[in-house]
Amino acid sequence: MAQKGTISIQAENIMPVIKRWLYSDKDIFLREIVSNACDAIAKHRVLALNGEAEPEENYRVDVVADEKEGTIKVVDNGVGMTGDEVIKYIAQVAFSGAEDFLKKYKPEQDESSGIIGHFGLGFYSAFMVSKKVVIDTLSYQDGATPVRWESDDGMTYEMSDSNRQVRGTTITLYINEEDHEFLHLYTLRQTLEKYCAFMPVEIYLSEIKPPEEKKEGEEDEKPAEPEKINEIHPLWTKKPSDCTEEEYKEFYRDVFHDFEEPLFWIHLNAEYPFNLKGILYFPKLKNEFTSNEGVIKLYNNQVFVADNIKEVIPEFLMLLKGVIDCPDLPLNVSRSFLQNDGYVRKMQAYITRKVADRLVSEFTNRREEYEKYWDDIHPFVKYGCIRDDKFFDKVKPALIIKTVGGKGKTISEYVADNCDADKEEKTIYYSSDEKRQAHLIEMYTSQGKDVAIFDTLIDNNFLSFMEYSQFDKDMKLRFMRVDAGVDGLTDDVQADEDARKSLEEKFRKALGNEELTVELKSFKTDSVPAMITVEEQSRRFADISKTWGSRGFEMPVKRTLALNSRHPLIAHLQKNNSDELDEMICRQIDDLAEMARSPLESGRMVAFLERSNQLLTRLVENNQN
Prior knowledge:
By secondary structure, the chain is an alpha+beta fold. It has 19 helices and 21 strands. It has helices at 11-22, 28-49, 83-89, 97-105, 185-196, 245-256, 335-340, 342-365, 367-372, 374-387, 389-395, 411-418, 438-445, 459-468, 497-511, 536-548, 568-573, 580-595, 602-624; strands at residues 61-66, 71-76, 130-138, 147-151, 158-161, 168-175, 203-208, 227-228, 264-270, 276-282, 296-300, 303-307, 321-325, 400-402, 408-410, 425-431, 452-453, 476-481, 517-521, 530-534, 559-564.
């Protein structure tokens, strides 16, 4: 027989889920209970504005810990509840009192109403840490009877008359033995500061002292002087024009406990097509970007939700520090949903555009200052370019190349100063180690060419990205490290092939390397006998594999020894004699060329030093003879 029915959720089935899986952190219960208290006050404020309730001058939420009794009380002077409302909003797990209220009063309310809404199952998170929960409440409505609701497990409850005499609600949590830490004032303060530091109602924390800590003459169970926990008007809720530079810096210090001043900041203030406010700070990076993930705190109506939700905030912004408050963000859905949510994508695009616009503005209007902190922000900017095409398109004009000597140039400026205008491919020469590669750098700068500095972890990836991206429709960029070739350092003179082969054979024998490739070139200078060159792309892959690959694995790179035909040592080696001294000279030339680009391995360095001493000894002996 066909039958239709309604599926119901049984408390004994849902409570274990709440306790174990619904919330990843136990301390979330305090956010839920306190935000409900703030909602109750926000509701009363709306009713008072509509003339449906008596006005209140001092709205507040009190959190009171009693370690002796093992309780935490959350007390508010909001709307309170009738018996019917307790059954409707508390006894029915899936029913949201905030949503019901908003449906009724939405036409009359504005953004200042402060209704937070609900996070998941809200109130029932109390049972994550409580063996018993008691609600004492009195509705604002005339003639209302105070109500007491209590439950030992969240599955069954008892209701009776309460002795509460003032409007509002007190929720008393009898804390489990294993969660006793939440009764300590220090832990409570930390938790409240984490989740409730900017809730829109004043929150006070106090404790009832044990008898042995009470002062003489002090009444029993009298709370200590309450401590105000929160700031109800955080800086991001104000208009940017109303905020001073010092206020921005003070807010940064207070929230992130970083006493090094931020470089600059962006105040987000959007009302359409979504409601989003916040402040993003560019901090001074202390080390490589990989170890300096920032902190972006996500809020919903001034209630802390989480740090660094990558599904909501563009990933490359994670190097920044800041706060984002978005009341319209759907928080009761999975992260996979957030990744594909059109609203979230629009929010990400807005934030990305505002950050790019600010960077371009800083570069355009304060270029000197911008160049000074480029070293601090360039990892973020480069990573953003790689990760987000729209960000790259907008921030192109503000991309800086730092050159040897500290001068900053844009891509266009570098190309104009150093590249042949007739060639579509524009080559940018760079160094990854200014001190180690100083001799090679000098070979380029002596010819009037600027050498860029790309010496951070992200640069290998960034350079490859720049080469394959369309920076400008009229040019193709090519990045060459100073040891990638000698074409820009040599005269256009054809070398003698027989001489090249003879030298190649001599160096192969001296170095014990039959795979060695030797080139013979006429350098524009006679200051160096040789250079080691490594093909750019293969060296980049090798560097990436060495940095990010498996431990102990290093991708091989083919080296080419480019000999300078104008140098006296090379001219000497072109002679037919091949004695022990020539072999030492070959090894010395190869080691010197390698040292100009990267450090020698320990064993090779020892051999180089011993050989240097031998050559110096021979030189002295020959002079004496």
